[in-house]
Amino acid sequence: MLEVGQKAPDFTLPDQNGDDVSLSNFSGKKVVLWFFPRASTPGWTIEGQGFRDELSNFKKKNVVVLAMSADSSKKQKNFCDKESFDFPMLSDENKSILKDYGAW
Question: Residue 98 and residue 104: Cα distance in Å, rounded?
């Protein structure tokens, strides 16, 4: 698990569209990493809707929201489409980054 003030390790993972997204792409911005265990489950859907509904406020403050779970890109895409999520939903199927961050 990361400690307060510790630099976040860089990573590159596919998003819901199969495009690679790297943390380093957002240098100079604040980043919220939303880790969740599984797409389309009730509690995590509500949490994701909160990020979706506040996304414009995050953007006004130069904050990027990135979501990540062990689901496949296809499952992430279905989740995004169903819930109108307009932020990258990253797929870490082997759970390596999730483990690095202490989220799994």
Answer: 5
Virtual CA dihedral for 20, 71, 79, 98, nearest 10 degrees?
Answer: -70
Q: Give the contacts of 89 (CB within 8 A, at least 6 positions apart).
A: 15, 16, 39, 67, 68, 69, 76, 77, 79, 80
Neighbours of 40 (CB within 10 A): 14
Instruction: Compute the distance between CA of residue 56 and CA of residue 74 in angstroms, rounded to an integer.
Output: 25
Mean per-residue pLDDT for 6-34? 94
Count CB neighbours of 16 within 10 A: 25
Q: Which tokens go with 32?
A: 């919220």
Query: Model pTM?
Result: 0.92
